Fold this sequence. Notes:
Blueprint: H1 3-21, H2 30-40, H3 47-58, H4 63-84, E1 94-95, E2 98-99, H5 101-104, H6 107-126, H7 134-148, H8 153-163, H9 170-194, H10 200-227, H11 230-233, H12 239-242, H13 248-252, H14 254-272, H15 280-291
Antiparallel strand pairs: 1-2
Amino acid sequence: MDFLTWMSAIQRRTESALEAALPASDLSPARLHQAMRYSVLGGGKRVRPLLCHAAGAIFGAAEKVLDAPAIAVELIHAYSLVHDDMPCMDDDVLRRGKPTCHVEFDEATALLVGDALQTLAFQVLAERLPGISAPRQIEMMRLLAVASGSRGMAGGQAIDLAAVGRQLDIGELEYMHIHKTGALIRAAVLLGAHCGEASPDAMERLGRFANRIGLLFQVVDDILDAEASTATLGKTAGKDAAQNKPTYVNFLGVKEAKAMAAKLRQDAHDALAPFGNSATRLHELADFIVERTF
């Protein structure tokens, strides 16, 4: 199976699993459930589920087991987008080519959507996972909680909001994005590995890969925000510059940001070298992240 065929298959599988996990739109409270489904289904690259499945495949994890952590991470990601788009955060009106949740519904509903998606993620991950011991499953829930909270994604967003209009140095910028973007990407990779028989050394190498990929994703995002159109991105282009937010592009310039992306990609590939051909999908995802146009 070539990469694009595999990617499409995992994206469809993820969409089906999300569809099944989300409450039905006619179930009370219907408006909240409709807004949850609106915010999650029918859009997105599903990069985090792809990383989860690719990492798990190295260790022979079954796809039906990987579905749970894959969609748990995606639900956390979706909740973060709903909250990030709200007027109290980035105040954006477009996401994945359609009105953001608070525009389509209202601010109070959007706030509750984020809350409900976050709790649903942990509900999914708490369900019995065949072949996974209870201690390992608890560790998986702990890993996702840390990656999502003040020491991970939420903390990174707080740093980002506090940095608007300030001049950060490259170390501060990297620290922010290791938390805001990288923490959840790292969790996706490690959760996939936890579904197989990954050794401590393998987990350490995958963590190194994931750290590089997390930064790579953000660098490419910054480049796309500067160069791509709103129609291509499916969200408002140039928003970072307009809000005077610190990015790799406004810190390094486009040329140097692209050079940094190339170096991060190579570092990610190097971290996977001991896995040989079993890590082919992770190698391909690293390339996809760099070469994507949206």
